[in-house]
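ok so i was messing around last nite and threw this chain in just to see what happens. nothing serious, just curious
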Amino acid sequence: MGAKDTKAKEFLSNNERFADVFNYYMFDGKSVIKPEDLQEKDTTEVISLYGIDGKEMQKQKWRDLLKSAIIKKTEGIIYVLLGAENQSDIHYAMPVKNMIYDAMNYGSQVAEAARSHKDKKDFDSSAEFLAGFKRDDKLTPVITLTVYWGAEAWDAPRCLHDMFPDMDSQILRYVDNYHLHLIVPQEIMNFERFQTSLGEVFEVIKASDDKKKMKSIFASNPKFKSLENEAVSAINVFTGLNIPIDKKEGKTDMCKAWQDQWLDGKAEGREEGIEALILDNLEDGKTEEVIINKLIRRFGLKPEEAQNYYDKYAKESSEIQLIP
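result:
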């Protein structure tokens, strides 16, 4: 597992953020799923299959995150299983991947019911005994949400039918489809629907290829003035920004850190420009006086600053020329 995948799993495993991402997707950001109503579940999906020779084979896969949830609505209480699959890269077979996870979970639920009924010996008919599942048994619904942590547009299939070649619609209507539940930063229009720092993380990811836009969101969103360090760390991993984290305070002023980093980069670029001017003019045979005057005019340097830069890079240039 790479650094981005590890960070995504770690960041989203928090119950507040886990509830938040599903509330955003399912309920337009309303706090329907409560963090305290989530319970960690085993992410191992196992199903038993039988080969041609009749021997039992077990298939095993590991989800990223799986939690049981109690959703309280006016019409009653709903029990569901919520799975999150993190993608740092686009996955072109994601519908099949998630469909397998869901099918294996349902298979495990049926197998668990069969074991329970066998122990209790409470089958009411031979049909129930053969199925391992009673007439009144019910499955717990599984909802799997894919969270993409990249800045690019998602150009992969969003349902099983997207993975087929062009096909006669009369035939395709009999092929059951599986739709991908997906969050893509580039497609998020309203980050305020998130109640946790997930919104800020997704907002930075979306703008990460546009420095002007990045500067704008830091200036316009006051939450970036005091962002929890876990979110800053996630932003660094997903975007490569390398923003210094304020470990002492536990929260980081992203606006100031970004400004400081921008100024450092600007200073570094200015230094490179000064060096290039000195070396180019030395190569062209310009005198020390001419070069220093150019530095003063072009970079607004004081005479002593220009002299110091000249001495530094002229010396380095002569040392390079002396190397055999």
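not much to say yet. Residues 33 and 270 are 52 Å apart (CA to CA).
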